[in-house]
Amino acid sequence: MVLSAREKPTFPDPEQADDRGLVAVGGVVAPEWLLAAYARGIFPWYDQGLPPLWWSPNPRAILDGERLHVSRSMQRVLRQGRFRVSSDTAFEAVMRACGDERDEGTWILPEMISAYVELHRRGHAHSFEVWEGERLVGGLYGVQLGGFFAAESMFHRSTNASKVALICAVHSLFGAGIQLFDVQFLTPHLSSLGAHVIPRSAYLSRLERARGLDVSLDALNPTVP
After folding, report:
1. Separation of alpha carbons 208 and 104, rounded Å
2. What pTM was estimated for this model as a whole?
3. Are 97 and 155 in contact (CB under 8 A)?
4. Strands 84-87 and 148-156
5. What is the pLDDT along the chain (225 residues), one digit of tens a residue?
6. Domains assigned to the chain
């Protein structure tokens, strides 16, 4: 389906897409479009020079709080106190770092940074920052709708810093009432931390229930498990 940037954001049923998950092409990456997309289990992912591409792959990768796996070596890292973790103190810096750190190029384009920063200002996007002293060495950011959190990207500038960000994010968010933590695609890195895949239909059902919950992250204090 081709979307017009001049119309209101209206996305087709993602269950009509094939397993690769391309739902629609076009439209515009702006806060209202992003909120409408995430509410339907859809996210943007495209390269410079292309129109926005909107995806909902099958199956979908998620992380459940009770299945989070923290290895013994990571438990030691967390206990060392080498890293300090905060939330929503450097959202734009985390997002830019997620784009800057990729050797193969980035899909985190200027219009995406502007749109997600505005979502953050409105309370719909959040970041977790990992600090080594006063230096930002890791983090992740994502979008929240009620009890749903979609982790978009993470980065590290120090060994294990992105793992610390993800572990603390999962532990803290599920503690705050998040019921569905989306990581989109399964990678070996995410699998080692307990991520797994579920059918798109099951994901969409869980999303419908989770996003209707009343969950506030305004006073979130990231904790280490």
Report:
1. 34
2. 0.95
3. yes
4. unpaired
5. 788 778 889 999 999 999 999 999 999 999 999 999 999 999 999 988 889 999 999 999 999 999 999 999 999 999 998 999 999 999 999 999 998 855 555 689 999 999 999 999 999 999 999 999 999 999 999 999 999 999 999 999 999 999 999 999 999 999 999 999 999 999 999 999 999 999 999 999 999 999 999 999 998 989 777
6. 2-57 (3.30.70.3550), 61-211 (3.40.630.70)
